[in-house]
Amino acid sequence: MRLKSLLVVPLLWTPSLLAQNKCVYYPDNNAASGGCNVIPFGTQKSSATWRNQKYQVLIPASKISKTPVRICELSFAPCGTGLRRFDSIVIKMGYSKSANLGRLFASNLGKPFKTVLSQKNYAWQNTANTWNPIGLQNDFLYLPQFGNLVIEVEVRGSDFPRTGRNGFHTGNIPRLFAISWSTNPPTNGRVSSTAGLKMELCFDKANYALFGAGCKGSNAKTPTLSAVGLPKIGKTMTINLSGAPTPAVPAVLILSTSNATPLPADLSSAGAPGCFLYARPDFLLGVGAVNGKASLKLPIPNSPSLLCARFYNQFLVVDSKANKLGLTSSNYGRGLIGN
Fold it and tell me: Which of the residues 30, 39, 40, 152 has the least number of beta carbons within 10 Å of its own beta carbon?
């Protein structure tokens, strides 16, 4: 099934700012090298030390751009593979005229700053030794005349049952952090001259990242969303479903522009325990899953105005034997339109 371009254009339009480079890296672009550190994304939820964290890092203006750019995505390089969960995560970006981080969080994050990600019950699928987009919900217009870039991350209730090593790859980057707190983070943190996380900042690079987790159906399998291709301007990508009941069941693909609060919505009270609605159901595209699988073509219009636009996808599968609601849900994907 092909989604009409006329439907996608008004749904996904956003103003664009052309960038000189697709991405910049700090301190380098090797996602498989460097030490591994659990600050700020934590380990197991049972650890009182690492469960809640606040963290800041400063990127010099000279490492980003001499001209204004729009930061559309922020990626990190995990040392292990698995589904990383947070009770909540908030990421902010702002400016600092200082070349160094001080101990006071509020003083480092100068105005104007912007919240680029704020979500509860966040599940981030990590793949080791590659750049993993964190899933920014909002862009940040970086103006070099305002100073150096400060990125702040605050997580609560982090949990990562992993495969392989824990933490994320680090570089020789100063950082400010606060750990071992319970209700509210302290106003001051500890400054460390090394072990800040490696980062990828992207301006107009297309990506499609996976988040969330599906719930098991009557066949003891979990409906799973995946994608082939990237949401590049003027190109077509494919969204796939696997793990649906056999021989044939109806399903719908959600096409949305938002995963913001109050999402994700827990469907337990509706009769589907363990299932979540991750994407706002702006448009529903019907599809038949045959032998547990389905595919839909998603054409991206050839319009530069769509650069940096985001969209979200999730499958809902009709499964009358799975639960009282008669539905199961998949994980979800976040597309970032680019070149």
Answer: 30
Least Cα distance to 309 among 19, 74, 14 occurs for 14
Q: Is 99 within 8 Å of 231 (Cβ atoms)?
A: no
Cβ neighbour number for residue 202 with a 10 Å cutoff = 26
Q: What DSSP element (H or E) covers 106? A: helix 105-108
CB 72 within 8 A of CB 19: no
Task: Give CA–CA dist 159/126, Å, rounded.
Answer: 12
Residue 10 to residues 17, 207, 300, 303, 306, Cα–Cα distance (Å): 18, 20, 12, 11, 10
pLDDT-derived band at 21 (thresholds 50, 70, 90) equals low
Mean pLDDT confidence for 61-82:
96
Which pLDDT does position 290 carry in this prediction?
97
Q: Confidence class of residue 5 from pLDDT cuts 50, 70 and 90?
A: very low
- As a whole number of Å, the end-to-end CA separation of the chain is 24
Give Cα separations from 313 to 59, 147, 222, 258 (angstroms).
32, 36, 16, 10
Phi and psi for 195 in degrees, rounded to 5? 75, 10
Instruction: Choose among 224, 172, 228: nearest CA to 198.
Output: 172
Q: What is the DSSP string of 307-326?
A: TT-EEEEEEEEE-TTTSSS-
What is the sign, positive or negative, of the torsion defined by CA atoms of 241, 245, 249, 255?
A: negative
Question: Strand, helix or coil at 100?
Answer: coil
Q: 185-200 pLDDT, tens per residue? A: 999 999 998 899 999 9
Q: What is the pLDDT of residue 18?
A: 46
Phi, psi of 9 (to 5 degrees): -60, -55
Rounded to the nearest angstrom, the gap between the alpha carbon of residue 287 and the centroid of all alpha carbons in its chain is 26
Full-model pTM? 0.92
Distance between CA atoms of 195 and 175, rounded to whole angstroms? 7
Counting every residue written for the chain, the total comes to: 339
The token duo for 141 is 């217009």
Can you name the CATH fold of 5-13+206-336? Answer: Immunoglobulin-like (2.60.40)
